[in-house]
Amino acid sequence: MNEISSIIDILFQIYYYMILVYILMSWLPNLRENFIGELLGKLVEPYLAPFRRIIPPLFGTLDISPIVAIIMLRFAAVGLHSIVASVFG
């Protein structure tokens, strides 16, 4: 059980850092257009897109949807931990 929880934590933490790096890459011009930026975009954008459709940018340019996406990712990790705990007891 502890091994499964550790794997879940590691996977969610990796995805969290992928989202964080992708967000930070948007602050630097043309950084998303290299190989790493495109790879992160393919992995992170499908998760961020629904949040961007629901939450419009504030003041025209401030996009808070990634913050909400990261919070929801944490809720998903906690929920998955609960499911694993109930199944594997």
From TrEMBL:
PANTHER family: PROTEIN COFACTOR ASSEMBLY OF COMPLEX C SUBUNIT B CCB3, CHLOROPLASTIC-RELATED, YLMG HOMOLOG PROTEIN 2, CHLOROPLASTIC. The chain crosses the membrane at residues 7-28, 67-88. Belongs to the YggT family. This is YggT family protein. Signal peptide: none annotated. It comes from the Bacteria. Keywords: Membrane, Transmembrane, Transmembrane helix.
